[in-house]
Write a structure and sequence with these properties.
Layout (H helix, E strand, L loop, with lengths): L3 E2 L4 E10 L7 E6 L3 E5 L2 E10 L2 E10 L3 E2 L1 H10 L9 E6 L30
Length: 125
């Protein structure tokens, strides 16, 4: 029946950019990385990913927005664990006709991380 303490304040952001070999007529790149924007147990989990040509980019963040959660909220979090998709992103080379997956990258170039934290947060509604 005790409350569950969280690491607060806490904010982490991880950005991964992978420059892959150029696709060929016989092989192309695909990826699996479901987008996420979920509040769970006092924490916001957010992820976006995209593949464009031979560049794969994933941005993930985790932000605590409460100091603690109640015992009943902790039970809800435990019940949600089986459906929580926080798996790694996967990039793979596939042999098949077509151009593979392509989508707009979460951002282009290399941003000034000290000036704009919006790259690590869900878009404003």
């Amino acid at each position: 029946s005790a409350a569950w303490a969280l690491k607060y304040p806490r904010f982490t952001c991880n950005v991964t950019t992978v420059h892959l070999p150029t696709p060929t007529a016989e092989f192309h790149w695909t990826y699996r990385a479901k987008p996420m924007n979920r509040r769970l147990g006092g924490v916001i989990y957010w992820r976006t990913a995209a593949l464009q040509g031979n560049v794969m980019r994933t941005v993930m963040s985790r932000q605590s927005f409460e100091r603690e959660i109640s015992a009943s909220e902790a039970q809800q979090v435990n019940a949600a664990i089986p459906t929580f998709d926080n798996n790694m992103s996967i990039v793979e080379e596939t042999q098949s006709p077509g151009s593979g997956q392509s989508s707009a990258l979460p951002f282009t170039g290399e941003p000034d991380w000290t000036a704009d934290a919006s790259f690590c947060s869900p878009p404003a509604k």
